[in-house]
Design goal:
It is a single chain. By secondary structure, the protein is of the alpha+beta class. Helices cover 22% and strands 39% of the residues. The protein has an eight-stranded antiparallel sheet, covered by helices on one side. The longest helix has 18 residues. The chain is globular, with a radius of gyration of 16 Å.
């Protein structure tokens, strides 16, 4: 049947308590056509710095500040400790902890509005308020899967 072959993104929501996360990040902008190149070079720069300084990487993350051209974002990687010195474009911050809702999303990056819309609806339906912008945590990457519908991303929204 044709219906059986149609792939669909999925999302499930969970309320969690998020612990503070120490991250290294690079802030950048790009038009949407060059975004994957900017993201790839940003993470390459972050991981080179992490490896040079003997840090242990954790979650691979992104914070989007503007979703339309030019896209403004921070590419970030959780680290076990913050170094004393930084190089080039690399900065650090601690993502605050607290109550949050997480959308466990499986599907292509082109359909990321699915988890964002689910979070917006959940926040409204549960009489909560967002505390800052949401952020993405990548659980795998396009080079790890055969099909873009196998990509796994958690989208976190801290709550007030």
């Amino acid at each position: 049947m044709l219906q059986d072959s149609i792939k669909k993104a999925t999302v499930s929501l969970e309320q969690v308590v998020l612990q503070p996360i120490a991250v290294l990040f690079i802030k950048d902008t790009s038009d949407t056509s060059g975004l994957s190149k900017v993201i790839g070079s940003g993470y390459a720069e972050l991981f080179a710095f992490i490896n040079q300084h003997g840090l242990k990487p954790g979650k691979v993350m992104a914070f989007y500040h503007r979703y339309v051209n030019p896209v403004s974002l921070e590419m970030a990687v959780e680290v076990d400790k913050l170094p004393a010195t930084f190089a080039g474009r690399i900065q650090s911050k601690t993502v605050q902890g607290g109550d949050a809702v997480v959308a466990h999303y499986t599907g292509p990056y082109e359909e990321m509005e699915v988890p964002y819309n689910a979070i917006t609806e959940w926040v409204k339906d549960n009489s909560k308020q967002a505390n800052g912008p949401p952020f993405e945590v990548y659980l795998n990457s396009p080079d790890m899967v055969k099909d873009k519908y196998e990509l796994k991303t958690d989208v976190y929204q801290l709550l007030r």
